[in-house]
Amino acid sequence: MNRCLINIFQLGIKELFSLRYDPVMLFLIVYMFSFSVFEESQNATTGVFNAAVAIVDEDRSQLSRRIGDALLQPYFQTPVALAVADIDSSMEATRYTFVIDIPPRFQADVLAGRPTVIQLNVDATAMGLAGTGAGYIQHIIAQELGTFLKNDRVAPAVNIVTRAKFNPNMEAKGFQGAMALTNNITMMAILLTGAALIREREHGTIEHLLVMPLRPIEIMLAKVWANGLVVVLAASLSLYVVVQGALEVTIIGSVPLYLSVAVIYLFSVTSLGIYLATLARSMPQFGLLAMIVFVMMLLLSGSHTPLESMPTGLQVIMQFVPSTHFVSMAQAILFRDAGIDVIWPNLLATAAIGALFFFAALLRFRKTVTLMQT
Known about the structure:
Helices cover 67% and strands 4% of the residues. By secondary structure, the protein is mostly helical. Strands 2-1-3-4 form a four-stranded mixed beta sheet, covered by helices on one side. The two termini are 28 Å apart.
């Protein structure tokens, strides 16, 4: 047993030294846990920000001007005056996301209590911006109508008070930064372990390992702990330096608990990386396989779209993917200050899936080693 642990430790040290002399992988690690996290959280805006808007003011009244003046930065650009005949051409040219058409005698009809309609034209090709922005504009128009009339004709019968929990300022920066870090953990764990095995094969060092008194499980465990350690250390620095430091995101949950959960999760995805590497015969093939798997995990795990909005069958399938549980635990820990008493079902599922992945990768790796020895 002691000899086995020593072999695993020494092979892991060899993995770290091999990574040290791989400048491309070192650059990728630094990039993915620094610049990539920062830029995605700062600039990949999914909400309403600096949206282009135009107003066709056919009324030219005090009320119509109030509506235009209420569309303020940073949510909207300064509204541009537009003629009715230019609405279609300007939207086809994608110059504006929103065009508000205020009809003639709008203020007079409102004051007289007559029904009137404001037309809001929306470029819905930008779906997230279109849906949220249209809601913002409707709220702004209703608010200006209420202020202008100063009576109860447009006031709702029930006053709804909204309180945003866990993100009171409704800022996407903190959420996107933490989720970018979580997704990059997945990608780098798959790439590092898979590339390490492919590199052994391409450089011919795998044959050196096979003639030594080493078992396949020792070689696998060495790659898992060495590359997992690199990812955990890089993620820790990114969380403290980039997310909490440069982005100034307040993490209300336990960072040590998050990193502990990441260690268990890394056991799953590093095993997946080794399994994919045994299927590929070269680095380009491995890159294509890893890309397909990562994109699926990225888009369907709940970090970009809510899991409950997906079809029921797909929700069931994604419960067998470890990234689904890791994303859920990351959100609960970092944003809602959840403890082990809350996340233990996801943690148990992650460990179980990791064991299955490791066993499958070990069987495949043993088969690959056997073919190489014959």
